[in-house]
Structure to design on (326 residues):
């Protein structure tokens, strides 16, 4: 298990990287929403944005980005909102998640999960 | 990858470019019961750790007495990853079972396929609160007893002690062993599949 630098994180820095915002529209991203870069970092871009764009050349889940950046999930979601709004990333949202109404995913999806796990 | 390795993520196993569907399973249990060990056994990446924070604005009204003493709370959790096929990627989260982490679970449980409650028979009481919350959220789960040592009780005794209905699987495992931990995930997936087919059947007859 890898311990990030979060324990010693300076709250002022988290305030700065998010531009002082404390809330993202959390419904936009799940922890396992997969993020993909749609452009290369450009000059003058905020360093956290640059890091995210480099990390997400291949799909990467929000929670992995959080771990690699050493920032809480909620802070990462705010950073991702900026990038999504400007079209720098796309987000692949979970399809197979359990719906909010408490139901289950389609049996076909769960069958695929079962078979894949059996074949590991 | 070329020689510039300043992006730490570049040196870690990246997902397939076609990966498009993240799934979640939560492993919940008391301190030291083997959650991280289980995640590590089956994960294709070295388990990672990160944090989620809760500020007072996001609290709601569930537990005001707790919040008054602290306006921001941070909880660390571990996770691992299994690529299931070209599209589906399963994320396994290890979540602490103590009552004070309820807000983390509420976030993790949203959209979670199901949960594994990892128990130690010497400390079954550690899992009561977790089971209560799972039932409250309607999150399907199975119970896996982690046997670091020779078990003192039968699985039926565990079921009785936890007051579990007969349709919830209770199984033995060794979280250190990949095949055993895999078998736990397979048991959960089978349970979920069987629940989904029986609820689909109910809908068609309704």
């Amino acid at each position: 298990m890898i311990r990030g630098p979060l324990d010693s994180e300076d709250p002022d820095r988290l305030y700065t990287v998010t531009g002082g915002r404390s809330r993202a529209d959390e419904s936009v991203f799940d922890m396992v929403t997969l993020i993909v870069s749609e452009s290369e970092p450009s000059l003058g871009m905020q360093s956290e944005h640059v890091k995210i764009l480099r990390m997400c050349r291949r799909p990467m889940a929000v929670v992995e980005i959080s771990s690699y950046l050493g920032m809480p999930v909620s802070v990462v979601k705010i950073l991702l909102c900026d990038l999504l709004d400007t079209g720098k990333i796309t987000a692949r949202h979970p399809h197979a998640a359990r719906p909010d109404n408490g139901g289950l995913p389609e049996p076909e999806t769960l069958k695929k999960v079962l078979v894949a796990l059996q074949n590991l | 990858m070329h020689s510039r390795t300043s992006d730490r993520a570049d040196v870690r196993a990246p997902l397939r470019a076609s990966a498009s569907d993240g799934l979640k399973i939560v492993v919940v249990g008391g301190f030291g019961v083997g959650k991280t060990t289980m995640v590590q056994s089956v994960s294709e990446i070295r388990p990672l750790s990160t944090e989620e924070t809760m500020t007072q604005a996001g609290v709601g009204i569930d537990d005001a007495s707790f919040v008054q003493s602290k306006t921001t709370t941070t909880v660390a959790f571990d996770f691992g990853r299994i690529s299931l096929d070209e599209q589906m990627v399963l994320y396994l989260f290890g979540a602490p079972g103590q009552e004070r982490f309820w807000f983390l679970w509420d976030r993790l449980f949203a959209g979670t396929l199901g949960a594994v409650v990892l128990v130690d028979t010497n400390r079954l009481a550690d899992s009561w609160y977790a089971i209560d919350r799972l039932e409250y959220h309607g999150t399907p789960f199975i119970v896996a007893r982690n046997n670091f040592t020779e078990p003192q009780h039968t699985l039926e005794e565990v079921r009785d002690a936890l007051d579990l209905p007969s349709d919830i699987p209770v199984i033995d495992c060794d979280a250190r062993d990949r095949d055993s931990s895999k078998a736990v995930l397979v048991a959960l997936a089978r349970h979920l599949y069987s629940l989904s087919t029986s609820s689909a059947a109910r809908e068609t007859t309704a």
Observations:
- DSSP finds six helices and seven strands in chain B.
- Chain B touches chain A through 64 residues (CB under 8 Å).
